[in-house]
Amino acid sequence: MHFMTFILRNLTRRPTRTALTILGLTVAVSSMIALLGITSNLLSSVLSSFERRGIDLVVQQAGKSSGVNSDFREYLVDEARKIPGVKQVDLAVVNLTDMTRESGNVEQVLIQGWRPDNFAFEDLNLISGRKFGWGERHVAILGKTLADNLKKKVGDTIVFSSDTRNVYEVIGIIHSNIVFEDGSAIVPLEDARILTHSQVTAFSVRVNKSSLDSADAEVDAVRKKIDALRDPEDPSVGLEARTPADYVSSLTHLKMIRAISWLISVIAVVIGVIGLLNTMAMSVLERTQEIGILRAVGWPPFRVIRMILGEATIFSLAAATLGTIGAAGGMYLLTLSPKVNGFIEGGLSPAVIAEGFAITIMIGLIGGVYPAVRAARLLPTEAIRHD
Amino acid sequence: MTEDLQEYLLYADGVHKSYPDGRVHALNGVSLGVRDTEFVAITGPSGCGKSTLLNLLGALDRPDSGEIYFRGEPLSTNRNLDAFRARQMGFVFQSFFLLPTLTALENIQVPMFEGERLSSHERKKKAEELLELVGLSGRAQHRSSQLSVGERQRVALARALANDPALLLADEPTGNLDSDNAARVLDLLATLRLERKLSLLIVTHSIEVAERADRIIRMKDGRVLEDSAAVSSKAEVR
Question: Searching chain B, which residue's CA lies closest to the CA of residue A295?
């Protein structure tokens, strides 16, 4: 008999309690992994899109928490374009705007105002229809998720703002690797300016790089020059350029999502620890006499601790496995929900799974340590007499 | 004293034990010894300190004062009594205390985790031999709930022998058995004692058990009342 066999036998003694403990822990772990997964997917999809599009710097108004509340004049974009080393610049207006459904309900959707030569178009997969051209107005390209949610196809119309006269023709449906973009509408820059009352919310910069070794320094040199730009009409308005990685990690709403995910995860972890602690404490209490026998036949306290922690770890591993499956399934189901499928991306990265397993094993060890120490401190003579 | 100690496998010298509140003096200066391959029975009325003495002799507990020697070495200086118990002592209890989740074969292997280093295959093989020794080869895969009380005690006996101890301590080993099973267990103990050169120390109320011992130690109120050869003590036990 292996020591592990012995531990497993203890768990199968009370199958209902074992199953319920694993189930409880699985729910907690599943919530935690799903939240971590959603956050991670969000960050990585935004970051990977910047990388795929060859964007070296993302620029927004200095002192603003995100591109959405940033707003500055196009003058600054033109000035940035003149900086030596800048290869290409693409400006955009990104913000939430009202959209009136055919039922009359008004909802908010993310719109992006682009020019026809925006290099982000290179990365988009046009499923149907076409892009808009220079001078075209009141046309929209819908992300696939948004189009599916609204049941719109090329040739249909969509009403932005709550003014029903503000009708846009759907001229294309795109699929983007960024979950946000798939849930947004792309309209000509001038239309977006009117709808959002913004001039430019952000722009992306591609930098000329002479070699791989000097690339970081060249990007940094451009970044510093952009940071130094000021609007002569309002010198308080300046710019802040960041690398895509810095930009993504600085976004306040992403930070908040991450913080909320961790907060909920911590609550789930605490619930998991308490549940496991209760189960293990009960289990030790029920087996006091048996533990006394194990001590009597020569088991040292450390082996008793190993036994109890081994049981707790098996609970954790089972919960982590089932929790990962549950989280992946739950995330997939969420992506099917029209309410959130423009904002949630399914799938779990190996890093998130590893993080989930590590935290769950930690739950097991924390939940098991008190009962284990208590069991190990039992005196054999008293434990054997325990009724 | 040192020369005397060499004569004994286990020797208790003036052992005292009180329970935590200090009011109950379970043992008051008990001295006794067990020689190699000797069979000693401890008898006495309930509450006289028999089980407390067995616990101290089995290194399950430490005396408040006095000393216990094993092969002339004081146990008070032994820093690893767990390992000592695992390798030198075998325990048999009145209520068997088999682990309910394990089969008979697995129960016997439990002490082996702390005995000599054996692979799982070696542990299994040794447990099979012990099960055969107690006549229960056919019950290897049965759990304790599937065994009769007599069979359970024989499995417990096999478990006590798992690490080839020098001394087997038993607390009322036939207390829960009918007369047939009790006789069978006692026969087995006698055989094992001879074959494995075991010393036996048994706490018992049973005349039949005490009659088989080489010596009977009668206790009362935490003291040794009488320590005599079994033949001369049979009447006293009664």
Answer: B82
